[in-house]
Description:
Blueprint: E1 2-7, H1 18-24, H2 26-30, E2 35-41, E3 47-48, E4 54-55, E5 59-60, E6 69-74, H3 86-98, E7 101-105, H4 108-114, H5 128-134, E8 149-152, E9 155-158, H6 163-174, H7 179-191, H8 194-207
Parallel strand pairs: 1-2, 1-6, 2-5, 6-7, 7-9
Antiparallel strand pairs: 3-4, 8-9
Helix pairs in contact: 1-6, 6-7, 7-8
Amino acid sequence: MKKIYMYVLDTMADWENGYLLQGLTLQRMSGEFKYELQTVSISKKPIKTSGGITIVPDITIDEINDEQAGALLLIGADTWSEKVNQQIIEVAHSFLKKGILVAAICGATLGLADAKILNSYYHTSNALFFLKGQSKKYQGEKYYKDVPAVMDRNLITASSAGSLLWAKYIFESLKLYSYETTEAWYNYFSSGKVEYFEEMIASLSAST
């Protein structure tokens, strides 16, 4: 089973991964577990999210296994500019070169900007002025898209308002579910219409 590594750090915006986590639980309903989520950090010391939740990381960065990696998730936080996060950015850079999915949302895009990664990928963030004002190394303005989420090759980026579409792109990239399931899931959570929930359940049942 492949691993989805989610980097956790102090002040992490714990609501930004909510749709992603919900979507992963559908593996139970489908009866097919393709990916296991593991939290990773610089140490196994508990971190405190922005919402006040305490998370004890499953593994450290040094324990990441490239051969088992399906994706690396980078969640927004107020602390991305701190040097302590440089190690996971280096992992992200390595993953991108190896064709492994990297998905960053909100403030995490600033970490990629500082590493000049966004200078060669189509991407988005909270706003263009956010990247230009916060990162002296960012020169990717011509690749910036003013939309909630962007997928370019094996890099997915999103604004703080793009967590639902961000999760959808991750599921599509990983081929986690069928097209029908992913579309029904996205349509249900973006509209709240019960018919899409019924479509989602039916498509999961059809795949078992």
